[in-house]
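hi! just following up on the protien thing from before. the input was this:
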Amino acid sequence: MRWRRSAGRGTADGASTARPWPVRAYLLLIVGVFVLAVVAATGYGFAWSSAQARDDATREMALQSRRAADSIASAIATGRTTVEGLAAQPGLDKVFVSAEACQLTTDGAGAFTSVRLDLVAADGRVACTSKPSPQVTSAKVHAGSAWLPAALRAKGTAVDWRAEDRATHTAAVVITAPIRRGTRTVGTVALFAHVPPAAPALARDVAGIRHESFTIVDRATHAVVTTSESAPRGSRATRFPGGRATGDWDGIDGSRRLFASADVAAAPWRVYAGERRSAVLADARGALSRQALVGLLALLVLAASVWLLNRRVAGPLRTVTAAVARAGRAPDGTRVDEAGPAELQRLAREFNSMLDVRAGHNAQLVHQATHDPMTGLPNKLLLRDRLDGALRADGDGDPCVAVLWIGIGRLDIVHDGFGHEVGDRISVEVSARLSRTLRASDALARFSGHEFVVLCHDVTAEEVADVVERLQRCLRQPFRGPEGEIVLQSSIGIARARRSATSADQLLREADSAMREAKATGQDAYEFDGVLQQRATRHLAVEREILHGLQRDEFLVYYQPLVDVETGTIMGTEALVRWEHPERGLVSPMEFIGVAEETGQIAAIGRLVLERACAQAAEWAAAGHPLRMSVNVAVDQLRDEQLPALVAQVLADTGLPPDQLCLEITESSLVREFEQGASALARLRALGVHLAIDDFGTGYSSLSYLHDLPIDELKVDRSFIARLDRDRQDDRDRHMVEAVVGMARALGLTVVAEGVETAEQLEFLAALHCPIAQGYLFAQPQPADRMLELLARQRDAALLGLAG
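and the predicted 3d structure came back as:
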C-alpha cells in the first residue's frame, strides 16, 4: 500500500481527500485577511474617534452651559442687590408725588445686556425710569401686568421669570421690591432684564471663538425662552424636545446639534449649549482619512513582502513538496532522495529519519494495544482475533479448536494480605508457569487480573484433557510468598468447537460459563455442555419473566396457618409468595426465588409480600381474627439499610401493630451477613416487631449467635421434622429436636416446628411441649379468602363448644 501526503495526515491511495492549498494561496489569504483587518481597524478607529469627539464636545458643552447658567444666576443676583438697595433709600415714596429730582441709572450685567430700572406706582404708571422713552412714560403702562400685583403684595424682593415688559412688549425677568409709605405699599422698584438678547450674549461672551449656540428653555413646559440660533423663515420650533440633559436634536436653525445642559440656580430655566454635529465630527473624519492613507501604505508594503516570500520561500517549498510526494508514491521502504541544495538534503534526511521513527512507534502502539502490560501476554483483543482466524481456517478430521478459561482463586487474599506488589509478582509467575506447561501451538492470554485463557489448535478431546491436567498440576504447586508458601486455587472451563461451527465470542462465553460452573460446584474443571446451556438459557428466561411478572402484578401471597400444638387453634400465619404465570400456571417458589436472589429482584418481591401481608393481617384483625403475620426477609433485604424504615412505613400505612408482625431470616443468611444482619435486626427489634430464625439447623451457626442476636423464636427446619417417624431405630433426629426445644426454652425463645405432616410428628412435638407447629397436617398454603373461611370455621367450632 502506498501513502501520500494530505492536509494533516497520510492516507492510502484511492481514499477521498481534500486537495491541499499551495503556499501562494496562503499568501493571498494573508493579504485578504490584512485588507479586512485594515478596513475593520479603520472603521473601528472612525467609530472610536467619533465617540471620543462626541464625549469631548459633550463635556465641553456641559462646562459652557454651567458657566452660562452661573452667568444668568449672577446677573439676577446683581439685579436683586440693586433693587433692594434702591428700595431701602428713605423718602423714595415721594417720587410718586414729584419726580423732578428722580435720576436712575443701570447697566447690563452678565447675560442680560438690555436692562431698565423703573419706579412703578401701584396704578401701573412709571414715576421714574433709567431709560426714558414715550413708551415707558406713557400713562399707566404697566397696569394689568401679571407681575405688578404680586410685587405690591410681596414683603421683600421678588423675581418673576416669565414676565412681560409692557413698555417694549418683550419677555423679561422682572426683579421687584416694594416701596412703602408707612405701612402702606405705594409702588415698587422694578428691574427689567430683557430675555431675547440673553442667548446671543451668552454665545458671544461664554463660548468665545467656538461655534456653540445657547438656548434657554423653560424646564416645566420645555418651551424655548430664547436662543442664539438663527431660525429660518417660517420656523415654528418653539419647544425643546423632552427633558434630556445631554443628547442631540434638530436645532431651531434646522442643523443637527449635540447639546449639554445645566439648570439655572433658583430659576425655572435650563441652559442648553449646543454645537453642530458636523463640526464635532470633522476631526474624526480627518483621522479617518489619515488612517486610510496609513492602511494603504501598509497594504503596499505587505504586497511587496508577499511577492518576495513567494519568490524566495514558496519556490523552494514547492521543490521539497514534490520530493516528499514522490517518496509517498514509492513502494514501502523507499526514502526521499537526498539530492539538491544543502538545505533540501538536510530536510530529506530528517524526513527519512521521521519515517523510521514512525514505523517504530506504530509497532510499539500495536504491541501495547494487543498485550497485557504486566505479564507481556496477549490480551483479549489479540486472542479473540487469533480465535477468529482459527475458526475460519480450513481443516478436516477430528482435530478442533478448544478454549480453556482459567480462573485463579485466592489472589484477592494475596493482594489484601501482602499488597499489590506481591500479588502482581505471583500473577507474573502464574503466567510463566502456564506458558511453560502449554504446547508450542497453544496460545495463552490474560483476560483480567485473575483470569487467563488458552487457545488450543487442532486438539482432540483426549489432548484437551491432557492439557487441562498439566495446567492443574502446575497450578497446584505452591508459590513462594514473603512469609512462606502460598497455595492458589484454580477452576478451568472448557469449550470446544469445530472450525466455523461457532463464533469467537460465543466460544469464549461458553468457556467462561463452564469456568464459573466449575467454581460454583467445587470442581477443578468443567466442560460446557447442553445441560449448562439449557440452564443458562432457562435462567435468563426466568429472569426476564420475573421482571414482566412484577410489572403485570402476577405475584400472589398465600398464607399457611401456625397452630398452637396444645389447643389446636390457629394463632398466626406465614405469608408465602406464589407466581401465577399466564402460561405455566402457579409456579413453585423453588423455580424463581434463587434467580430473583441472584438478580436482585428479590427486594421488589419481598416488599410486595410485606405490604400485602401486613394489609391482610390488619384486615383480618378488623374482622375479629387477630393473627400474628410471619414474613420472610431475604439476604438482599437484610443488607439494605432502608429495611427498618420500610417496615415502619408499611406498619404505619396498614395500621398493623408491630407486635403482630414477625420477620423471619434464614440461618444461612445470618451466618453470611452476621455483622450487618445483627445491626439490622437490632433496628428492626426497636420497632417492636418479632424476629425469628428460619430453617434453624441448616446454617452451621454458633450457639453464641443465639445469645447475641435480638431474636424471639426458632423455626426448626422441616428436614428434621420429616425424619421423626421414618426410622424409629435411629433416635438422633428426635434427640436433635429435643435439644433444640430444650435450648430454646432455656434461652427464653419460642420454637416453631416446620413441615409437620403426620399425627405422629405432632404427638411427638406435643410430648416435647413444642408450642407452635406448621405444616400440611393442618393446612396447605392458600389464598386469603380460603384462609378466612378456615378462621371462620374455627371460630364457629369454638362457639359451639362454649354453647355445649
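Residues 415 and 646 are 38 Å apart (CA to CA).
The two ends are 107 Å apart (CA to CA).
cheers
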